[in-house]
Design a protein that fits this description.
The protein is of the alpha+beta class and 361 residues long. Helices cover 43% and strands 21% of the residues. It is globular and about 75 Å long. The structure holds magnesium ion. One of its GO terms (molecular function) is damaged DNA binding.
Amino acid sequence: MTDFLIANDARKILHVDLDAFYAQVEMRDNPELRTKALIISRDPEETGGHGVVATANYIARNLGIHSAMRAAEAKRLAPNGVFLTPNFSKYKIVSQQIHEIFHNFTDKVEPVAFDEAYLDITDLNQPSAQIAAEIRHEILRATRLTSSIGVSHNKLLAKLGSEFNKPNGVTVITPENMLLFLDELSIGEFRGVGKKTREKFEALDIENGAQLRVMSYEKLRGLFGKMGENLYWQARGVHFGEVKWQRQQQSIGKEETFDQMLHREFDIQEEFKKLAVSMIKTMRTRHLVGRTLNIKIRDANFVTTTRATTHEKPWPLSEEAFVQNAQVIFDELIEAPFSIRLLGMSMSNLQSSAFEEMTLF
Ligand SMILES: [Mg+2]
């Protein structure tokens, strides 16, 4: 069964990940930092010991510092390290450059983070490794930053591959070398294995992928539930998750024509609410946010008015905000008594919400 599944997966998937992204951007902009332990976090001395590390350069990592570590702990490990408050607006600009490069190769891009994405390049004719090399070259040329790429036939192996050869490397995992690769992987490197799971495996003397693959499905499920089932397949390099990409869309939203024309403020507000709820739902499902809210109103004489409100940042997905904006526009344009035959609400200037949803610790 396993062999069948492996042979059947003819996709070409890349996982692209910049190396120590925030730290690399700061070192690029201030080369003096290259020789120092650089920790992207507010200085715990200024925050009274609060805060966590967003990322750190490789000098700091060699001292044992890592993302999500308490800043105070990082300070103990690197008393002479440089602590820099993250400059997210700067990283975001670089992030947009990188994601534009991805889209020059394919539209099938699933953004994972500012500096990280899956690409499905199955439709492209060139060899995957060549495309990976070109993407890395383009990123370096445009941003002067290095990245690592995992190349394989599914997202799991692509992700494991990009982690394997970090920093500044490419790893190609094929159906032929995949089991060898997984054999050597330590248990903690499999997806979703946290400290607790790792300790359980240690107690069982299971340390790597080869030993994991010997364990039966029933045994893994009994010990770890869903996670155990998942690990059973991971050990075999099987993963069917698709690269979740969106066709570029101009706008999301809709308009409603009323059989009975609306005359009351209350009904107008109720209709705007319905439109907002439906629009938010679609945007959530498609992981999109937008900068421009468009309101459309048509009266009994077929006079149609539209108004767009564009923000510098995407609108929050808030029913109240949308309805309030619509109501203000309505009150500006329409005088009572009124007869309204159509209302519309839509969002344009769309972008992926992956950037907005990211939790920055
Ligand atoms: Mg990264």
